[in-house]
Amino acid sequence: QLQLVESGGGLVQPGGSLRLSCTASELILDSYAIGWFRQAPGKEREGVSCISGSDSSAYYADSVKGRFTISRDNAKNTVFLEMDSLKPEDTAVYYCAAGNWANFDWYEYQYWGQGTQVTVSS
């Protein structure tokens, strides 16, 4: 079974940057789309960004467009989420997930990581 492990979360000041990594336990190559989701306390899970497996097309939620960049390194079985110009409202647990196609519906993804905390605060 495919396993995903997120890393790179932490505490950062507003305006700062973080890079999250999602590493898969096996070759993912073009087999899976990868999505990044986040969930803040008391809020629903929200799709942030996703990247297709076939052609690495990238998609972003309006709330992060222009600030976040998703990319994948198939040789390392890793997908990255570069987060710049972070805001306090970006504070959440961030999860990566693997599914058959790139979309923002969390229930379409079959495999999930354990999550990594991102806190944006001064």
Number of helices: 0
Name the helix and strand elements from N-terminus to C-terminus, one letter apiece.
EEEEEEEEEEE
Distance between the termini: 40 Å
Helix content estimate: under 10%
Give the overall shape, derived from the CA principal axes.
globular
* Total strand segments: 11
The mean pLDDT is 94
Strand content: over 45%
- SS-based class: mainly beta
Rg over alpha carbons = 13 Å
Explain the overall architecture:
Helices cover 0% and strands 48% of the residues. It is mostly beta strands and 122 residues long. The termini are far apart.
Furnish the topology, listing elements before pairings.
Layout: E1 4-7, E2 10-12, E3 18-24, E4 33-39, E5 46-51, E6 58-60, E7 68-73, E8 78-83, E9 92-99, E10 109-112, E11 116-120
Parallel strand pairs: 2-11
Antiparallel strand pairs: 1-3, 3-8, 4-5, 4-9, 5-6, 7-8, 9-10, 9-11
Précis, in short:
With 122 residues, the chain is mainly beta.
What labels would you give this structure?
globular; 122 residues; single chain; 7-stranded mixed beta sheet; mainly beta
